[in-house]
Request: fold
Amino acid sequence: MNLNSNNTDESEVERLRRRVEELEYREKQLLKSLRMNKSLHSKILDALPINIFLEDPEGKTIFVNEQACKAHGVDGEQLVGKTVFDFFPKIIAVKQREIDLEVWEKRTLQTNEVVMEFQGKEGYMLTGKTIIHLEESNQDFLLGFGLDITDLKKAEEKISHMAYHDALTGLPNRWFIKNYLKNCHSSNSIQQIKGVLLLDLDYFKVINDSLGHEAGDQLLQAVANRLRGVISADNVLARFGGDEFVILMPQIMSVDETFETCEEILRVMKEPFSIYGHMFIVSPSIGISLHPLHGEDMEDLIKNADLAMYHSKEQGRNCYSLFTPLMKEKAILRMNMLTK
Reply:
């Protein structure tokens, strides 16, 4: 009896020992799996070329990935526990905190293009923020990402500049003016546009044909530089096409200001231009139209300034003319004679 009892006890102990070993093995495998999953998740987050971060409701940083650390130029330990006010300029931090609070209130994903500053360098970021809930701890966190789009924004700005500026002179072009006019119509700021000057270079074709197109291009660049020195900061100078330039004057009190600008243009154009060793004077013919006297919209103002400019050419060139309704009547009469 005692022998059998001892064998039974030993067998039970062995079973318990094997059970313990089995549980210890499972625990080790589970911990290994958890470490692998954690490492995998961490590597995935660190491999992404975007800033990823987690914040608590007070705005304190709970987690940042490797890219976010690189952007700030510090280790993650230096970011955890900090808020945007600790690592961004105040004006940017205030804006970001406002966005955070709005996300907490609406509890939906919000994306924004924002100006950011990392290590003293300003750039553009596409950011996204939303709220996540952890059931295990019954806690909510703000999950955010930031993608650096500085190069993209610069490329867009370059393309936009190329589309709306003349490649030869660097001045705004006809498309810039048209877009400017659309904004005027949509915002009713046409009420601020008081004067339009349209000028054409006299005998430019003769110079262009005799000295070549490169000489003509150099002349246009030189003319643009002189005109830049004439107009005030609130005026818009543009190359309208060919040898035509337009000046929009939104802040004038009377027609006398347009006359003064024209006189200044005639004065600076009296100085000879030197192109390929040739010295010559290029005079302008200028037309003027005023809002609202000569048109309620910019298209009519430019058309009427164009008629006034051709009237200046008829008067002997190298002068300026203010639009009158008679000029339009003469233009209609000429057109009727050509179509008969």
Notes: The chain has eleven helices and twelve strands. The domain at 166-339 is CATH 3.30.70.270 (Alpha-Beta Plaits).
